[in-house]
């Protein structure tokens, strides 16, 4: 983040993605059979972990049965010269997947964030997002023919005669914004979304739509959900958001007035909070955002007067 050098969850990944080597099937086959290589098994978007909730990392040479059972195996990159792959066991039932991986359970990556460093979580998120994309792109959207993986799992291509469409993994960008009130006292806008518990407040956020910039998306979402017009929009930082393959981009936005008119659909209530009010909530045990989300960093930076 601009005002804070901390690495957000799912960021700071340390893999060399080795783009120049992905198109060499011989090299990939050698790495996949190399005892030094590592395989990260996943099951239906969930990480397979041991009894201590540490992600299982069977060496490739000991994972022949696992690899043979996998629906898809993709190359993620190099870790200190070792190849790292991800294998999708979604076609098996949960028990079979755990046995193949030597795992105790299958959990969402979000449940592991507190015990993993940001970079380790980033690799698990990368594996989850890439394998999820492959499961959803088995057939060509243009002609309906089957697609086949290429470039170590970084592409899929249509096998249909006369088509040959090339598909690439896609991310879903979203914006999240800390909206500041004009004048004194300094306040920020938080909202209670439909379905949220009473006295549960969070920042406004939304997906970027076709034909708009990130800044345009901030202005539109704040206006649509809270009826607040914002002028200056300032980038603060971004975060990979693996649910399943998003990108969360954080901003600060300056409101023209404190008038609020919620849409009543996504947002049922919105109000301005002073720093003193937010500090009181923290003191009462009310967390500011999720531990793995950029909203905690945006709110924390504002609360500390940074940025």
Structure explained in plain terms:
The chain has helices at residues 25-33, 64-69, 94-101, 118-136, 214-226, 275-283, 294-303; strands at residues 38-43, 46-49, 72-79, 82-88, 105-107, 147-150, 155-158, 166-167, 172-180, 187-193, 204-207, 230-241, 246-255, 267-274. It has 3 domains: 1-136, no CATH class; 137-169; 172-303, Nucleoside Triphosphate Pyrophosphohydrolase (Alpha-Beta Complex). The model is unreliable at 1-5 (pLDDT under 50). The chain starts with 24 loop residues before the first helix and ends with a helix. The protein has 307 residues and is an alpha+beta fold.
The number of distinct β-strands equals: 14
Rounded radius of gyration (Å): 22 Å
Number of domains: 3
Order of helices and strands: HEEHEEHEHEEEEEEHEEEHH
Stretches with pLDDT under 50, minimum 5 residues = 1-5
Percent of residues in helices comes to 10-25%
């Amino acid at each position: 983040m601009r005002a804070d050098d901390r690495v957000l969850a799912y960021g700071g990944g340390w893999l060399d993605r080795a783009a120049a080597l992905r198109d060499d099937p011989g090299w990939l086959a050698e790495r996949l059979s190399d005892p030094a290589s590592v395989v990260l098994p996943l099951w239906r978007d969930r990480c397979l972990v041991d009894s201590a909730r540490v992600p299982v990392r069977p060496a490739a040479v000991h994972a022949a049965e696992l690899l043979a059972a996998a629906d898809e195996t993709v190359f993620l990159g190099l870790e200190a010269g070792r190849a790292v792959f991800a294998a999708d066991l979604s076609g098996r039932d949960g028990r079979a997947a755990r046995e193949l991986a030597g795992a105790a359970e299958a959990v969402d990556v979000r449940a592991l964030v507190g015990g993993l460093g940001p970079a380790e979580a980033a690799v698990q998120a990368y594996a989850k997002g890439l394998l999820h994309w492959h499961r959803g792109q088995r057939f060509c959207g243009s002609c309906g023919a089957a697609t086949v993986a290429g470039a170590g799992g970084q592409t899929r291509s249509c096998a249909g005669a006369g088509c040959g469409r090339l598909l690439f993994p896609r991310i879903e960008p979203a914006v999240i914004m800390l909206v500041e009130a004009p004048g004194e006292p300094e306040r920020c806008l938080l909202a209670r979304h439909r379905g949220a518990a009473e006295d549960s407040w969070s920042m406004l956020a939304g997906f970027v739509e076709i034909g708009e910039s990130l800044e345009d998306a901030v202005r539109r979402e704040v206006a649509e959900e809270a009826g607040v017009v914002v002028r200056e929009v300032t980038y603060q930082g971004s975060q990979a958001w693996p649910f399943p393959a998003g990108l969360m981009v954080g901003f600060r936005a300056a409101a023209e007035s404190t008038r609020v008119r919620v849409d009543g659909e996504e947002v049922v209530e919105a109000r301005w909070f002073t720093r003193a009010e937010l500090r009181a909530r923290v003191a009462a045990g009310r967390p500011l955002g999720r531990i793995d989300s950029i909203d905690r960093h945006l709110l924390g930076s504002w609360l500390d007067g940074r940025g």
